[in-house]
Amino acid sequence: MTTSNDTAIDPKTTAIDDKKKDAFAARIRGFLPLIGFVVILGFFAIATGGSILTPKNITLILSGGYMLMIAACGVWLIMTMGCLDFSQGSMLGVSCAVFCALSQYNLVLAILGGIATGGVIGAINAYFHVYRQIQSFVVTMCVMFLLRGVCAFITTTSPVYAATYVTTFNDMTLLMGITLAVLVITYVVTRFTSIGHNLKAIGANEKAARFAGIKVQKTKVIVYIVAGCLTGFAAFINAIKVGSVTSTAGNMLETQLLIAMVLGGMPINGGARARFSNIVIGVLSYLILQKGLVMMGFTTEIQQLILGVVFIIMVALFSDRSSNQVIK
User: DSSP character for 306?
Assistant: First the structure.
């Protein structure tokens, strides 16, 4: 007679343990962007002998981030829905050209004109994506090339110059105040209203969000228009710094925003894991990484190579593969 000492495995206990492991892994993953920011800052602080932390370089890093931070707020809203927008750079260029032209008459009119231009372009993106059912990255890439052609056309003979008084607003305190105001408004709206929940629900599962009573199409249209308006407003910040628009205005901005978002831990397919901190941590990490590579003397080609490797690694870490969602 034989006896068995084998103990049956309880499926419920195994499932609970798996859930605990997944929850722990999710918490650890949530801290990775902050850890990455500290590692990047620490590495370049050592590699540059601490010079990257001097007041002068910190000022330079921040001065290059106001426009990026404002535009990133709109891109974050779009990415939270599981969509993309590759037209941001060209949109900024056209909006900045409108601002510069109207600044010859009135500053307020110029700011409103830039915002309206961005909003109209965002509405065009929304129309083809939402109502014509074309994937967001296809629509926005087409618009990107179209607007880049517009920028080249209007600057064929010479750059579009802003009025001379515009550059007098290039004050760090003013720009920082404007940027913080945009960040606070974005945080409050997405944190304390249903908008943030709706965007994450759409990103997680658009069909389920529709059954839950969320007006998916209306929400998408509004978000694309708002994101366009934010980029149009960022054009005002860009004009303050450079005072004119050339055919390369806003060039590669969409790439910078995408890299910044993934550095901040933004899932490329949006959803419930999107956090407002993705904006701040991501943009700051990107600015320090970019400035650090320049200070270390890397060529533009090597900088792009390093940024590409970092981008791939971060996408692999933060993509929500379990949800089987694709870019809309």
Answer: H
